[in-house]
Each structure stands twice: as C-alpha cells, then as structure tokens.
Design goal:
alpha/beta; three-stranded antiparallel beta sheet; 2 domains; 14 helices; 400 residues; 42% helix; Aspartate Aminotransferase, domain 2; Aspartate Aminotransferase, domain 1
Length: 400
Amino acid sequence: MVLLTSRVGRTELAATFAMAARARELRAAGHEVISLSLGEPDFPTPAPVIEAAHEAALRGETKYPPVAGNEALRVAVAERFYAAHGVRVRAQDVLITNGGKQAIFNVVMALAQGGDEVVIPAPAWAGYEQTVNFAGATPVFAPCAQADGFVLRPEALERAITARTRLLLLNYPNNPSGAAMDAAGLRALAEVLRRHPHVMVLSDDIYEHLLFDGRPHVTLLGVAPDLAERIVTMSGVSKTYAMTGWRVGWCFGPAALMKACTVVQATATSGVSSIGQAAALAALQGDQLFLAERAGAYQARRDAVVAALNAAPGVLCHRPEGAFYVFPDISRCLDKTTPGGRKLTSDEDFAMALLEEAHVGVVQGAAFAMSPHIRISTAAGAAVLEKACARIAAFCAALR
C-alpha cells in the first residue's frame, strides 16, 4: 500500500489537461475533433531564437547553469522592464525559472503555508488554486463579474483580505477571461494594499504583449513603485514568443524573497536549461516587430469569435482586451437536453457534451472558479475557429 501525503490529495490535475486527453481519445477513435482547450500559441518559435539555441549548444553551453539563471538573461529581463515601465530592477533580484509556472510555485511556497490565505481574483487560471492547495494554504476567491469586465474591483479586494492573507495573485491580461486592467484600476488596488501592509502581491504578466486595440500594458509595480518591497513580477517567453516547450520564465522582487525563491528552486529543480536560456536571451534581444503582427492576428480572431458566439443561441460573450481566450456565459444553455439525450445542469456538462457530440474541445468555467462559463482558446487558425464556432452554434441551437 502506497501512503501519499495530504498535499498530493489536495491537488488535482488541471481540467485543461483532462479535456485535451479526452480530445485525443476521440481523435484516435476516428473523429475530427477541434481542440480549443489548451492555451498554447499556434505560431512557431522565431527562427533566430532556434538558431541562437543551436549556436549556444555548438559553443559548449551545455553545462549546469547557475540556479538563479545566467547573468546575461537576468540583465536583459531587468533592462526590458525598465524600458517598458520606467522602474529599475536589479539583475541580482531576477530569478530565471523553469517556465512561468515555477515562478508562481516558488513564490507561493516561500510565502504561504497552513493557516495562511491567498487571494485569487476569479475567474482564474486553475494552477493558482492548485499551487496554493499544495502549499497547505487556503485559496480565497475574489469574484470579478462579467458586468465589471472581469477585472478586480477595490471593494472586492478589500472584502477578501483578512489578517491571515499572505499573498494576492494578479493576472492581467487574464487567463481565462482576456480582461486587462488600466492604470487607474491598478492604482485603486494599490490604495487598498497600502492599508494592508502584511499582504504581498504576485503580478503574473505572462500575457503582457498580447493586448488589443492599441491598449498599453500596465503592471502594478509600474504604477505603484512605492510598494516595490511587496511586489513580485513574473513573466516569460512562452506566450509572447510561442516558446511554451522551451520552459523559460522569470520573476523579480524584494531581495530577501528572491533568495528564498532561489532556495525553493534549488531544492525542486535547480537551474533552467542553459540552451533554453540562450534561446530566451535571443528572443528578448532580437527583432520585436513581429509581436505587433501576432497581436493583430489574435485581435482579428477575437473579433470573429466574439461575433460568432454572440450570434449563437443562449451564449453571451464578453469582448476580451488581451490574451488569446474568450470566456462566454452559457447560463441560458443549461437545464436543456442535447440531441444525444444529455441533460445539461452545469458548464462541465456543457463542455463534455460539446466535445463528445459536436467534437469541439473547450474547458468548463468551473475549472477557473467561475460558472457557468466556458473557456475557448483562440490560439488556432481563422478557418479552424470558424468551423468550431459553427459547430458550437449548431450545438446550442439543437438544445431543447
């Protein structure tokens, strides 16, 4: 008999992985499945980035890297943030991580434990709750309504904070809603945080370059530099440069906390692939003009998908400001029966029936702490998205 720890029992695999696995099963059975469940860019990694990695390997950059990351990449991250937001970051306070996910894991493990609370604006990426549970802390969700554009309001943050709150997790542009915050909204949150000096903040900026309609990216440290000793900012190359498989992210913040996070990382994984770091450095220092082109492509997809979904019976879809997701409300599709005879009582029922009867893979809103919604990734070609939306519309129209 295998005796597992309680932390494993508190943690489940993300629903995105489960839906993707079911989609693969249906494909193997001969069905044409359109899977829009994973948040992964469909664009290729830029060729100069791949060439830089190859050259680094040929130069012999294949040894153990420093746990905190190679100096050149840490400097590049600090310089990039200063150029974008006008706030100086010391390179020695930058930690290169095995993807953005490890940056989150490091911070949560360093700050939160049993008896502590972590505030998570909802809807939220499922990995936040999983990591908080794994650390033994308690996730506290602060609801962000579709009527409010899915952004965290200061009054909702105030209600969520208690004496036990250790950390606030912010993610804008947001996964799954695509919502983005402006400077005024972040300043309002900063005012709340100033009244609660015991609360640290992790600002997840992984979608920072995927913004639409000319909207600039703003981040909490940029609008509230006086809170620098309480803010950790994280990002990475996965979404911006279509480098999900390279597994390179980073975070930076107060020196003492970054040292603690380095200890966590040294214990768990040690340093990041030296070849991956060379690729990430090339990405940050290379031509950035293509970023606007890709953001424009995602914006065009957003416009087409939002219009198609809002024309579907029973679907109400918010127009996201960034990222590559839409998060429609499907409440008017519930308490109905599918052509296959399934009674839909939840967004999980809806998502599974849509996959198994219409062969379109999405993820239920319950996985992101907000129901009844579904998350649809727009990281797919225009023709694929058009076909998927047509199937969703037909599925909804057939509900009785």
